[in-house]
Design brief:
2 copies of one chain form a homodimer.
Chain A (H helix, E strand, L loop, with lengths): L4 E4 L9 H14 L6 H12 L6 H7 L5 H13 L3 E5 L5 E5 L6 E5 L5 E5 L3 H11 L3 E12 L1 H5 L1
Parallel strand pairs in A: 4-6
Antiparallel strand pairs in A: 1-5, 2-3, 4-5
Chain A binds a DNA duplex (25 and 25 nucleotides) through helix 2 and helix 4.
Amino acid sequence: MTTANVRHRGHDHPRPRSAAVVDDIVSQLAEQGHRDTEPRRLVIGAAAAQGRPFTAEELCVALPCVGRATVYRGLRLLVETGQICRVLLEDRELRYQLSHQGHHHHLLCAVCGASADLVGCDVEELLRQAAAAAGFRMSGHWLEVYGRCADCVIA
Amino acid sequence: MTTANVRHRGHDHPRPRSAAVVDDIVSQLAEQGHRDTEPRRLVIGAAAAQGRPFTAEELCVALPCVGRATVYRGLRLLVETGQICRVLLEDRELRYQLSHQGHHHHLLCAVCGASADLVGCDVEELLRQAAAAAGFRMSGHWLEVYGRCADCVIA
DNA sequence: ATCCATGCAAACCCTTTGCAGTCCA
DNA sequence: TGGACTGCAAAGGGTTTGCATGGAT
């Protein structure tokens, strides 16, 4: 295997400040014909402010002035446009987090909820071959890896 | 990688007829102190009769004489005792299917819904190493592979 | 001036739970 | 017989939708 490459959220690749993230996403949405509205900016801003995968409910609580439906519609739009991705916990709870470039998987800490992206790990090719051996043409896969992050392994 | 080994449901390893499957599962449940009841047998029988991953709702429809709660409770018991396993479709719809031995993953056909088990594919070790590179100690993972089965690739 | 986006509340879907009655072991 | 199991219906939670209003382009 290739040595796995890891990006810890907000460390190795520091993101621009939240406001810039919001502007960036809003402009990308604009290119696709989606309007620039205050509630939508609030949703994006709150999403960007989360330190780890978050739930729709958490965003609703963080944004009491934004309608519940608007939060859900905003999240759906962001997923559809690839700005954020969905994360499934072991108990099947659905969470979200800002997308990073390209295809990757999530390492999720069962203790503190932290998330790290796993990139450069060639599971995909392995799966494609295995699927082919079964006569399947793979079109996609869903993979979540659960465990304990470095901090929680020590504790 | 090791050459992936594949089991197509009901082909390479033909299962005993449905009634025998039911008896087998019921006796395993009995060993764990669970009673042998008619509704439970019906649930197991219906589950065994499905040709592909099924939903709780499908079982309820197939068993109009069995209470909805009983179907759900039966499925939960079967999952807890390892007799059946959960399968997640790409849209996150939850389905079930009879378990096979050991750890494996599912190849799911997006067209016809068929399912094949992927065994002997050492994704796990690859993931463990990748997780370790990120400082994570892996404790588990969830993987579903989506695509088209041999029949549906042709069609 | 459009018509997309929002907010509220109700609707929805899927699953679980409370409870009284039933039936294995 | 006692405790597990069942069925019904109602509750539950998480998410979506209908509709009238508001706001971006």
